[in-house]
Write a structure and sequence with these properties.
CATH topology of chain A: Growth Hormone, Chain: A
CATH class of chain A: Mainly Alpha
CATH class of chain B: Alpha Beta
Oligomer: heterodimer
Number of strands of chain B: 12
Radius of gyration of chain B: 20 Å
Helix content of chain A: over 70%
CATH architecture of chain B: 3-Layer(aba) Sandwich
Helix content of chain B: 25-40%
Number of helices of chain A: 6
Number of domains of chain A: 1
Structural class of chain B: alpha/beta
Strand order of the largest sheet of chain B: 8-7-6-9-10-12-11
Number of strands of chain A: 0
Chain lengths: ~210, ~325
């Protein structure tokens, strides 16, 4: 039971951070590639491509290394990939803008450089979470369903709160740094709480 | 995982479906008379705006709709193009009292091209470059407002920030840069930040000036003024109602008021503007007070689109 809650909170936080990043992404690219539709198109397609890869790879990994330690490592790594982005995104975009591609390809390349790694890793979290909480095949669908719902509620709130409030309150750099720190702390909390709680006895369906 | 997919759908659906759903050819609509005697000549949803071209009497307007309101972006008197019907055009012309012999002029945000065409007309020695994001706006300017490109007037269809970066790389320089990019009532955020103003400064010739069209009614106004203060040495404002025109430069010493007025008088005699330039200079600005202490806008922190919805008081 407790472990279920721990995993649910983890996917909620990861969903939140992912969509927050996507919102901030538009702001990060606009000064270098403008605010043409292709900037949003690039960002959204990079996130979707990354998630497809993340879901697939996450599923494979969860089969091979089905442990909370592995899942925490993936989340921590996502946080770590955001550190260079939060410190150096202006320079990264500056370099890519200097290549002088069309804004379309420039914004796609920039979005890929900055968001591909963290969003592949965050995409891996959901299949991992399903693997960790599912004990019996009959409950696989309902577990997957509720985890996806919780993760998407996180995404929805991350999207709203970032665009309605955080951008007004902090700046891009701080939002990126907080996102990175949140992921690393979440990974640590997951490890600690997982080892403190005991697994659900097999056969106890709810 | 679903919201991202919806975002993509919304993004793809809006422009593409308009001609299909209305069953009309590229958005041209039959001339419709509204109760104010306003004729609608053209309506189209572009990638960036809901564009309308309307005509009342001899005044033709380009409007962008936002939140149910049609904002006038440009207007022209089709019987006399030198009349400049929008109030802020008067104040924009004051730029030339500061810089009476322009050789190269840049517009960031062209709209229907009324001012670029007026400058092309009044200053035969000046080359005018105009940057406009929306290709549909450029097309409407050519079709309804008589915009013509030639060897002294060139239009760049690109985001203002991206094009200024290019000019900077190409080492193109201007005497006068007009910052007049609006998207139905607000200024896109990447065109408000200190980093952008530094780039604009980089495309100025020695003695060059930046002329900005600002709206004191919006909460972002004070942030913008502080950002200009942080970037440029000298600031002069014009406009007695509505928009406020801010002229910024780094000239040492600051051009004095007497010389600006003398320039305005000489130009008025020479060019016969339809507005009296010396009186615009004399009137100066009566509004637009702001708190000089507070945050400025940067690429990192520029909540302009959040602020725009908040009235100042």
């Amino acid at each position: 039971m407790m472990r279920g809650v721990v995993v649910a909170v983890t996917v909620f936080v990861c969903g939140w951070v992912l969509m927050g990043l996507e919102i901030v992404g538009g702001r990060m690219l606009a000064p270098y590639f403008g605010s043409g539709v292709w900037v949003w198109g690039s960002i959204i397609s990079v996130f979707l491509a990354a998630l497809s890869v993340g879901y697939f790879v996450g599923g494979l990994c969860s089969k091979r290394y089905p442990s909370a330690v592995a899942m925490a490592a993936v989340i921590a790594l996502a946080g770590i990939t955001l550190i260079p982005v939060s410190l150096r995104y202006a320079q990264i975009n500056e370099w890519i803008a200097a290549i002088d591609l069309h804004e379309r390809w420039g914004s796609l390349l920039a979005a890929a450089c900055q968001f591909l790694a963290p969003s592949v890793l965050l995409g891996m979290v959901s299949p991992y979470a399903v693997r960790l909480v599912t004990r019996r095949v009959e409950e696989a669908g309902s577990q997957a369903g509720s985890l996806y719902a919780i993760s998407t509620v996180g995404s929805c709130l991350g999207c709203l709160v970032t665009s309605f409030d955080l951008i007004l309150r902090f700046g891009i750099r701080h939002i990126l740094a907080y996102s990175s720190a949140t992921l690393i702390l979440t990974a640590i909390a997951l490890l600690v709480l997982w080892s403190l709680t005991s697994p659900r006895p097999e056969g106890n369906a709810s | 995982m679903i919201p991202r997919v919806i975002l993509v759908c919304v993004l793809l659906a809006s422009p593409a479906f308009v001609p299909i759903s209305t069953g009309q050819d590229f958005g041209t609509v039959p001339v419709a008379l509204t109760d104010a005697g306003e004729k609608v000549l053209f309506e189209k949803e572009s990638l960036y705006h809901y564009i309308r071209v309307t005509q009342t009497g001899t005044i033709r307007r380009l409007q962008f709709r936002r939140s149910g309101e049609d904002f006038d972006e440009s207007a022209v008197d089709i019987q006399d193009r030198t009349k400049l019907p929008l109030l802020y055009y008067r104040s924009m012309l004051v730029a030339f009292a500061h810089q009476p012999n322009p050789t190269s002029v840049l517009f960031v945000g062209m709209g229907a091209g009324t001012l670029p065409m007026a400058i092309h007309h009044y200053f035969p020695a000046a080359h005018v470059d105009a940057v406009e994001l929306d290709p549909e706006v450029v097309a409407a300017a050519k079709r309804f407002f008589g915009l013509k490109e030639d060897d002294r007037l060139k239009v760049y269809e690109r985001d203002g920030r991206v094009q200024v970066r290019r000019f900077l790389a190409e080492k193109k320089k201007y005497d006068v840069v007009f910052l007049d990019a609006f998207r139905g009532g607000y200024i896109p955020y990447q065109l408000t930040t200190r980093e952008f103003l530094e780039q604009v400064k980089g495309v100025l010739l020695p003695g060059g000036i930046v002329v900005s069209n600002l709206r004191p009614g919006f909460a972002s106004y004070e942030y913008q003024r502080r950002t200009y203060d942080a970037t440029f040495r000298n600031h002069t404002t014009y406009g007695t109602e509505g928009n406020l025109i801010l002229i910024s430069d780094d000239c040492v010493p600051k051009s004095d008021a007497a010389r600006i007025l003398a320039n305005a008088e000489r130009l008025q005699k020479e060019k016969q503007f339809r507005v009296d330039l010396p009186s615009v200079v004399r009137e100066g600005a009566t509004a637009g007070k702001y708190d000089t202490k507070g945050p400025i806008l940067t690429d990192d922190f520029a909540p302009t689109d959040v602020l725009r919805g908040i009235p100042r008081e």
